Amino acid sequence: MKEIIGTSNTYLDIDLTNKTWKVHQASTEDLKNYLGGKGLGIKIFYDRLKDRLADVDPLGPENLLIFANGVLLTTGAPCSARFEVITKSPLTGYMVASSCGGPFGEACKTAGWDGVILTGRAETPVVIRFDDKEVVFEDAGDLWGAGTHQTQDRLRMTPKDGAAVIGPAGEHQVLYANICSGHRFVGRGGIGAVMGAKNLKAIVARGKAYKCVPVNREKFDKTVKKAQKHILRSPFTKGYKAYGTNMNTRYGIASGFSPVRNFRDRFSPKTEAITGEAMAAKYKTRHSTCRYCSILCGHKGMYPDGRMRQIPEYETMGLFGSNIENYDTDKVAVWNDIMNEMGMDTISAGGTIAWAMEAGEKGLRQTELSFSNFDNIGRILEDIAYRRNEGAELADGSKRLSEKYGGAQFAIQAKGLEIAAYDPRACWGHGLSYAVHNKGGCHLGSYLVSLEVLMGYMPPLTTLGKASWVVFCEDIFAGINSLQTCLFTALSIMTEPVVPKYLPKAALNVATILSPKLSQMLMNWSVYSDFFSAITGIAMNQWQFKKAGERITKLERHMNVKMGQKPDEDTLPERFTKEAHTKYPVASAVPIDAMVKTYYRIRKYDPLTAGPSAKDLRKLGVEV
Ligand code: SF4
């Protein structure tokens, strides 16, 4: 096998309209400034379309769909078999980047490519296959209409191959369709619809032509050892390993972030039935994860119908469980399978369905959906994927529906992206994170609920310090998502430094909110910058790594502003900001305006434009 020392920094550049391809060589300067993966993907998008960002129709041929690998991929670094997909979202109208641990990334990387840039639109459905030497376009007529796993089964793949495919939801341009690779999914914000609009059913990489070797093997091996040690002894790894992300339900019940009845309530005694502990016992779960993972949050289990199924993630279980007042976990697993086969985002589907149930209850819109009848949900999910019957409208998401029928106050979304199953009235910083994240209501923008509730580093119901922590975590996470290692590694690595480890919780709770800057300076995320420099040979310390994260976040925000984002979109639905009195109240309506104001001040965003100034961008090295 041939060797790549460091990373190739080359991308396949494919034009679907003309069925041609060439090589895009990214510069070392861009790799250093944007770290690869998500960051470099955003930079490539910006370089190509910066003069017409507002005009790009997300479902038009001009939109770019970029698959980007991180420098860690295939090196053996823990939890790093991930790739990112970057595009302009048809759901929000702004930039979206999402990460996946499926096999496409590894095959693409070992074919010698750090990613694929797709533009144009094929006239008829196609499959793209590529290896280290060539790109082939095949007719996909007989695959069009097939589900995501069915498609992968029929692609005649060898062990060297990895595919990224869409299902019927992508073909029908459901605005929250996703992309499937192996049994993992990428795609908040309708990335699958962009692929479907390009008439691209599947892209298959044939890898194993190259292996990637770190420039500094000794430093790399030392960093792997350190990262593994942190990961393996973390209580979060132990919890996720045992119960998957459904470990969070227990915390949700205790703190009040677990949603009930479209986020009207935050606790039902029945929620016990959907905890990770309950499902591990019921389904005798075992691991089913992204490749090369040390945390093992993905699980599968044996269901009463004799089928081995993927256990739905916490977000899916919350939104299709307690949030619609369904406590039958068998049903959620079946719906999860349907959504996976159709290729659609379970968070947006769940949020949209809950909105439709409440809108029906309030008489705003006629619907077959209700909080007391779940027999039709499986069929309605398929109707969404094929845009049939009521599903045709539900396929556009809760924001568009509420604009048409009213009910915006209970459309649980930010910038059009439905919010995951963490009620921000129990974790205000997490609420700020939903409100200001460039992608919209994404729970992983800074995942502040982890510091506020899961780790208990800071009191959840205060505004003090929260904007500073959201900025800090957004920057670090943008960096981690550009290296393309799993964000969950941060939960282990950030609990390691001496101060959070040994300072009593009460003292930590005061320090983090009264001196957030000082607390951040005492944290240590050098594992990530050490990985980057060991692999690429480009010197980088943890503060430069954070600066790169800031650059990525602010460039993305600048692009969003050019695409039309306004300051009043950095907010939460009124359900979270005005409705505090639920059945089990926590004193709690989120004071979002005050936190957003502080966030803007720290980010140096102009309150009139919602974006960074040209001067600030130039200081970061962004050409404007
Ligand atoms: S922790 Fe979970 S999401 Fe992260 S790499 Fe492992 S299986 Fe994938």
Describe this structure in words.
- The chain has 624 residues and is of the alpha+beta class.
- The protein has three domains: 212 residues, Aldehyde Ferredoxin Oxidoreductase,  A, domain 1, CATH 3.60.9; 178 residues, Aldehyde Ferredoxin Oxidoreductase Protein, subunit A, domain 2, CATH 1.10.569; 195 residues, Aldehyde Ferredoxin Oxidoreductase Protein, subunit A, domain 3, CATH 1.10.599.
- It is 42% helix and 13% strand.
- The chain has 28 helices and 19 strands.
- The strands form six sheets. Strands 3-2-7-4-5-6 form a six-stranded mixed β-sheet, sandwiched between helices.
- A hairpin with a 6-residue loop joins strand 5 and strand 6.
- The longest helix has 21 residues.
- The chain is globular, with a radius of gyration of 22 Å.
- The structure holds iron/sulfur cluster.
- Iron/sulfur cluster binds next to loops.
- What proportion of the residues is helical, as a percent range? 40-55%
* Molecules bound to protein: iron/sulfur cluster
Question: Can you tell me the CATH architecture of the largest domain?
Answer: 4-Layer Sandwich
Strand content: 5-15%
The strands making up the biggest β-sheet line up spatially as 3-2-7-4-5-6
Number of strands: 19
The major sheet is characterized as:
6 strands, mixed
The rounded distance between the terminal residues' Cα atoms is 42 Å
Any idea what the shape is?
globular
Provide the CATH top-level class of the largest domain.
Alpha Beta
Cα-atom Rg, whole angstroms? 22 Å
CATH fold-level assignment of the largest domain = Aldehyde Ferredoxin Oxidoreductase,  A, domain 1
Q: Low-confidence runs (pLDDT<50, min 5 residues)?
A: none
Secondary-structure-derived class: alpha+beta
**What number of domains?**
3
